[in-house]
Structures are given as C-alpha cells and as structure tokens.
Specification:
Largest sheet: 5 strands, parallel
CATH topology of the largest domain: Rossmann fold
Distance between the termini: 34 Å
Shape: globular
Order of helices and strands: EHEHEHEHEHHHEHHEE
CATH architecture of the largest domain: 3-Layer(aba) Sandwich
Strand order of the largest sheet: 2-1-3-4-5
Structural class: alpha/beta
Strand content: 15-25%
Radius of gyration: 19 Å
Number of domains: 2
Number of helices: 9
Length: 225
C-alpha cells in the first residue's frame, strides 16, 4: 500500500514541525505540505492529492470547523483528524457530526498520536480491501478509528451512539446525570443509561451517587481521562 498523503494545518510553526515529525515517524505516512491557515489549506486541498488532513481548530482566516465543513460540502474524498486545544462539547460534537475519524486534544504524547494513526491506517486498509460490506463489516470499520473505549460491543449496541456519548462526555468537566447526557447527545434517557452502565463496567466512566436534599438520589457520570 502506498504512503498515506498528509496535509497538516497548523498556524504555530513549532507545533506544525512537531506534528510533521510525529506523523512521518509512523510507518506509512508522508506529509506533503503544511498549511498555516484555513484558506491556504483549502487551496492546497483543491490542487493536491491528499488522503488525510491533520487539522487544528483555532486558525487565522478560517477556523478548522469551517475548513472541515467546506471539505464535506465539496465532497472531497479526504479523511480528517482534529488535533486541537478545543475541548468544549459543542466543538467536539460538531467535529463528530462532520465525520472526523479521530479527535486528539492538546497536549498529547507521541504514543497517543501513533495509536490514532495506526488505527487509521488499519481503517484504510480494511476499507480498500472490501467490496460489498455487510453490517458487521461496517461496524468493524467504524470501530477501527474509534478510541480504546470502543472494543467488542454487546449485541444491539451501536458504535456511532457510543462514539457520540464518549465525544460529549470528553468535553464535560463535571459529573452529569444520565438525563443530562441523553439531552446533550440527543438520545432517550433509557438508551443513554444502558451505554453509561456499559462504560462503567469497562472502567472507562466513573459513577457517583448524588444524595439530593429532596427526592431520590441520582447517579451521575464522568469519563475517566
């Protein structure tokens, strides 16, 4: 398989250099250009053959979210990994809905970066080898680029739903009830509770009991980072 052609979009020259070195330290990846702002990134995307964009959010001229939206609007066959200090739930959920394959919060270590790129490489290898995909194949492809919270899921569990819950909770700083998490993700409370209990069982989410002055105690949840 040919090297995966990467465009890095980062306005800080030092960070851009680090991201470039990290990327090319992983076998199978080649950085073909580094863009300093969103407009330059979109110009390069229109002219160059690019497989993967490593995209910051806080950029001059156009934000990373705007660049991502334009990539999707134009229908470019390009994958996007967000690497950014933006960790609020709205930004995370917007990126998720726009189809990023991974979201890495700054600061990060090389091991974390390498794991994401390796997972993405496996994703591409699987997707390019397959012809017609059944539901099991599709679920495996979606799960390949998810983080280590998504492994072998119980029957009737959705990778997309679990990813949405994880993305939302990753942007929260306080414990939340199942009802609050359900509202944030757009699920029923019963569905959110099922997935939360699964994540608690896997040791990826912490659960506490909130003893209210009035009414019954409430379970609250927070992701373990």
């Amino acid at each position: 398989m040919e090297n995966i052609r990467v465009l890095i979009v980062e306005d800080d020259p030092m960070v851009a250099a680090i991201n470039k070195n990290f990327t090319e330290a992983v076998e199978g990846f080649k950085v073909i250009h580094v863009a300093k702002n969103g407009s330059e990134a979109l110009d390069l995307i229109a002219k160059k053959t690019i497989d993967l964009v490593i995209l910051d959010i806080y950029l001059p001229e156009k934000t990373g979210v705007e660049v991502l939206a334009e990539i999707r609007r134009q229908g470019y066959p390009i994958d996007v990994i967000m690497i950014t200090a933006a960790d609020d739930s709205n930004t995370v959920m917007t990126a998720l809905r726009q189809g990023v394959v991974a979201y890495i919060a700054k600061p990060f270590k090389f091991d974390r970066y390498q794991a994401v790129l390796d997972a993405y490489k496996r994703f591409r290898q699987k997707s390019h080898k397959q012809g017609t995909l059944d539901q099991e194949d599709i679920d495996k492809l979606f799960g390949t680029c998810s983080n280590n919270l998504i492994q072998e899921l119980p029957k009737n569990f959705s990778v997309h739903t679990l990813s949405s819950i994880i993305a939302y909770m990753s942007g929260q700083t306080c414990f939340q009830s199942a009802e609050e998490i359900a509202a944030g993700v757009g699920l029923s409370r019963v569905t959110a509770r099922r997935y939360l209990e699964y994540l608690v069982e896997k040791g990826q989410v912490q659960r506490i009991m909130d003893y209210l002055t009035i009414g019954r105690p409430v379970h609250r949840f927070k992701i373990i980072k």
